[in-house]
Design a protein that fits this description.
Helix content is about 75%, strand content about 0%. It contains 17 helices and no strands.
Length: about 350
């Protein structure tokens, strides 16, 4: 008899979320009574924050199309043996480091295409190569060190030329050296569960699909990536930014971010654009800045922009994409991405302060 009453008795007890729900109901009713326009203002603020990024950047600009095209390019390269070629080149180096060579694949696809496409293509490759979870985290952190689109890299070179900064050593030290150094650093410190892999232990990664099927399937895959993963993740991140702006907190966060970027030798205006919106837009704006700006800030901004930013990618797109395509959970992928971002900011600071005098 008591067993039959137990569920009813349990349901009669107040649950934490029921208490919160009741408080929200009366709180919203009170807000509608005292300030009836506040709810519409909240929604309008959030929409004004989300719309420019989702619609103007991803739907109606070249960036959305670039994501789809980059998936097509990446899949074509994969079909033409690009992945197997990379493995051949990097096996001797990574064998010496005792790391699975597949960890560098996301970074290279990131430079050639797009960070979202890199995760979509490289995640299954790492799984197929039997990379440990630690090595997959290394791959994510290393990927954050390279530009999230080829357009960002090219526009950055134009900005450097405008300010008379020698691009060659900067590109080598900021983009190509980290592909090798970061896996070594992380494998000796945070992610130690790595193993030496011989070429004979790895499968071949070139698929046997027909070329026309590769092109059309990758176009569909790119569209799914854009509309089902990237845009929802971006909307979620900028939803919270809009809510913080409505609460009056965001201006303080933005001001603190600007001061921090200047201290780290990063031009604040374009740095904030890289962090919050689009690095491609940031490097395009970099070329229009006054020539009197300290070259250190330009170098730092170039390095920061040529990374896995903006934050919507770090906190939204990367975790979702890698959780779907690899052995990592969203939390694990996010942790690795944040570690990669910290390394990238440190790189921008170091190169901005100490390398700039040799570049101008």
């Amino acid at each position: 008899m008591e067993k039959n009453k137990t569920p009813q008795a349990a349901r009669a007890n107040w649950h934490l979320w029921e208490i919160i729900g009741v408080i929200l109901v009366f709180g919203l009713l009170l807000i509608l009574l005292l300030s009836p326009n506040s709810m519409s203002t909240l929604f309008d603020t959030i929409i004004q924050e989300v719309k420019p990024v989702v619609v103007d950047i991803f739907l109606t600009s070249e960036i959305g199309i670039a994501i789809i095209v980059s998936v097509i390019v990446g899949r074509i390269l994969e079909r033409l043996g690009f992945t197997d070629g990379l493995i051949r080149i990097f096996v001797p180096i990574m064998k010496w480091f005792k790391i699975n060579p597949s960890v560098i694949i996301p970074s290279v696809y990131n430079i050639l295409g797009d960070i979202n496409a890199a995760g979509k293509i490289s995640g299954p490759i790492l799984v197929k190569a039997n990379a440990t979870k630690a090595e997959q985290k290394i791959a994510v952190a290393t990927m954050i060190q390279s530009p999230q689109s080829f357009a960002t890299f090219v526009l950055g070179l134009i900005a450097l030329s405008v300010f008379g900064i020698n691009a060659f050593p900067l590109v080598i030290l900021s983009i190509f050296v980290p592909i090798v150094i970061v896996p070594l650093l992380l494998s000796r410190t945070i992610y130690r569960d790595t193993k030496k892999v011989e070429l004979t232990e790895l499968p071949r990664f070139t698929p046997n699909t027909r070329f026309l099927n590769t092109i059309f399937a990758s176009a569909k895959e790119g569209a799914e990536l854009l509309f089902l993963i990237i845009i929802p993740a971006v909307a979620a991140v900028f939803f919270f930014i809009g809510a913080l702006k409505f609460a009056g907190v965001w201006s303080f966060i933005e001001s603190g971010l600007s001061s921090s970027l200047t201290f780290l030798s990063i031009e604040p205006a374009t740095g904030i654009v890289s962090v919050l919106a689009a690095p491609t837009l940031a490097v395009a704006q970099l070329a229009d800045l006054a020539a009197t700006i300290d070259p250190r800030l330009i170098v730092g901004s170039f390095v920061l922009a040529n990374s896995g930013l903006p934050l919507s990618v770090i906190f939204g797109q990367v975790p979702v994409t890698w959780a779907e395509t690899s052995d990592l959970t969203e939390r694990e992928a996010l942790g690795a991405a944040v570690i990669g971002l910290i390394i990238r900011i440190a790189t921008a600071c170091v190169l901005g302060y100490w390398l700039t005098p040799f570049l101008v």
